[in-house]
Known about the structure:
Number of strands: 8
Structural class: alpha/beta
Order of helices and strands: HEHEHEEHHHHEHHEHEHHEH
Number of domains: 1
Number of helices: 13
CATH architecture: 3-Layer(aba) Sandwich
Helix content: 40-55%
CATH superfamily: P-loop containing nucleotide triphosphate hydrolases
Low-confidence stretches: 1-5, 62-71
Amino acid sequence: MTTTASTLARKLLVVTGKGGVGKTTIAAALGLAAAERGLRTIVVELGDQRRLPRLLAGASPRGNGHPPRQSDEGAETALADNLWSVTIDPDRALLEWLQALGGRVPGRVLAGSGTFQYFAAAAPGAKELVSMVKIWELTRDERWRRRSGRYDLVVLDAPATGHALGLLHSPRTFGSIARVGPIFGQAERVRELLEDETKTGYLAVTQPTEMAVGETLDLRAGLRSRLAVELDATIVNATLPHRFDGSELAQIARLNGGGRVTRSALLAAQTVHERARVQHNQIARLRRHGVAVHTVPFVFTPELGLEAVRGIGRRLAQRV
């Protein structure tokens, strides 16, 4: 198993898992932790998300608590010292790629042609491949645009498990269609990056429920079968601690004859204990399957603030 140091030393870190388990928060936390270590880091979102600037508003010592303005669609936005974010739009990424392949005019002409648009929409994995090509480009020392910054680490806030596997498998899918030529060559370069475990790491984010843990095990199987890579670790989010041992629970049960307040407190204690027991059984299930597990405690606040995200990052930097 890898350690945080080797993980952050890679060029690409893919963070995925079941929807709604806190992937974006963990990706942001890892980005903050890497930036604090002096690594030039960019956290990547796909589609029309743009959650990171809001989540990390005020992360910069010069920040004012508001999300930074992103005047240029798809721009790499500075969030803090050594930390940027970008949302990849496949159409924009396609134009950049075509310009890199054949110059500005051919790129614009080809991207605007009805025939090519139909091909891009119909070819299996085309849009996913375009997004992965842009992620590959972010990892390069020599960028397509000379004035673009160079990054030590790219953290991908990937889609939920099933879509993420399709995204990561797109270079193989598209490469089998293209077979030869510059598009095939580019697909091969992306595939090599994704399958090189010295350059790319994979983290699953889950919550300690039966369904989420089952999806994590499916993700590990999918990574093995589709990319021949291993899941580095699973981050189990929103975990509850074991608060009571057997003797303490027995003492609590003897309070059952008290008043309404006592009975309510008893019920709350028993409920929390049972929920924690079920959670830890699911964590043990992951470990029985040989998965490296690292936990993030449940945060008892209605909304996660910047300092809480920063604290999660520092915790993971010590433990993963």
